[in-house]
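MODEL INPUT / OUTPUT PAIR
PAIR INDEX: 1
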Amino acid sequence: MSGAVQATFNIADRGYEVEVIENYQSALNCVICSLIINKATHGCERHVFCEGCIKEYLTKSCGEDDTVVCPGGCRKEIVDPKKLSLNLAFDMMINKLKSKCSFKNCLWTGDLLDLVKDHKMRCKFIQIHCYRRECGELILKDDVDKHNEVCLYNTYRCPYCQNWRILRKNQADHEELCKLEKIDCVYKDVGCWGSICRGEVEQHEQDNLSKHLKLTFEKMTKNEKLLEESNKEIRQLKSENSSLNQQVSKLNKETTKTAAQVLYLKGHIKGKL
């Protein structure tokens, strides 16, 4: 409409959404947003609103005659949008309301003004969402750097190929297949000690086929000699064990014979007594 007021307003000028820890008059709540009044502004002689709320209301409701009914309930009174004025007394009362920080685990309490203008900006318990859309995890503001180190949707630099566009959630899969990772030759156990890039394994095995065969043969020959020496020791131990068993058997027989002789002598002596 041609007479509509082209007022501007800021959503930050609407009510304070804070937790007050003292009793206060309901008149300190804005009837438009139901929150504690922010920048108390007269809509009429009787009612006070948030500056942002009343300006938005007037912008949407003003008629061709530049007047509008007060939203405070006194519908007979007319608001003049060109004569809005701040209520400093209301602001002073509101700014002194005892409030507490709403961030989890924070024990801060103090004046509402100190809360919204200072403490909320630097509270160590401020929680924010990870800016990566796929993550969105709620974290403490001071822990952003720690979160970035573990966020599955943050990129990291591969220590092998230096690619820094890999998502951390794909880190394990990438490193397992990265062609520039240095790995041991599969013939390390037989003496090929060279470290090679994963992507060069096939070429390495082709280039060193003769070497690997030679090392494998030498290892087998060495193992056969060790096996023969072990078998020889086993046979010798078996032989020694057999000899010891014979000696033990002989001693057992002699012990049994001696025991019988002792019993005979005891009986003979007892008969003479």
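PAIR INDEX: 2
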Amino acid sequence: MKRGDLFRILWTLLYAAHSQGILNSDSRDPRHDPAVRPMAVAKIPPPIPDSGGSLPDLCDAIDFGPNVIIFDSSMSNTFIQSQIDSVFQIQEANQFGSQRYALFFKPGNYSLNAQLGFYTTILGLGTSPDAVTITGGVNSLAAWFEDNATQNFWRGVENIAIKPTVYGNNTIWATSQGTWLRRVHVNGTLWLFDYISPGPNNWSSGGFIADSVVDIEVQSGSQQQYLTRNTDLTKWEGQLWNMVFVGDLNPPNGTWPSSPFSIIQKTPVIREKPYLTFDSSTFSVVVPPLKTHSQGPSWTAPGKCENDATSIPLNRFYIAKPNVGSYVHKFLVVNVEAVGPENPYYISPSFFCFCFFSHARAQNIPYNT
């Protein structure tokens, strides 16, 4: 695909959204009632001046940036632990800081005690969660805030197996909003509040688990509300205000409003989040298939999901850095005047958008057909 074709595609999509009112103020929404506020219409930004520099190209060199730390099992556990501890010392209470970290683990077995602070993500790079196994602990506690996890935001764990030993067979994930466990296998009990750290309370308030397995049980404790989806819970203990279960195996008994549980037996339609893998020398983005009326995790039966997934080499993506923002802007808006609704275009399955690593925290955006 030529770059000019891409510009026309993007402009066509923007024009269609505009013409359908997606980008316009909607008079059906009272927030946009002309009697309440002036009608506003989103505008397409004009092309920026062309400096003459070439646009960035896709290439084989993979550079995730300085704040993505990649580990493999040939490294000593002592070295890896020191790196994790250094990140945690920076991020434990860094709620309003600008630092962001992603910790990538290539397939293998590790013995570690990984604690997660703000704006930190741990990601396994295997084709299944069990391909990256951490024995010891992957935990989020609230010692920094006197055992109160109601401000433990912005952290996540993806695509790994945890064999807990630090706190017995317990993994402690004491968090609130803006957190997630996704494609995680907990070989033990999962505690959703902090019963370890000293403090006057052990409050916690919200979180999200998807496409995961907990072998023994989930203890929700002080959690006020929670959402789980397509997860094998084995057993759920605890209730408070509002717990939602969608497409889970072994959800608790009870029905709203007599209990705080809202249970939807099967997920109507979902495509699991794409995930990054590493095989020998190649990074790839795996795009799971669309599922309808699904229940339970996608990866527990061999080949259940992976056989239908699409694997895309990472060199088909452009990894944008903060210093190439002007190039990305130029890529998206230059020559938009050449496209109109009379020139329909489609996005080829061979084309994939950018991987954005702002301060090296990843958001993968492949185009799914």
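PAIR 2 NOTE: The two ends are 16 Å apart (CA to CA).
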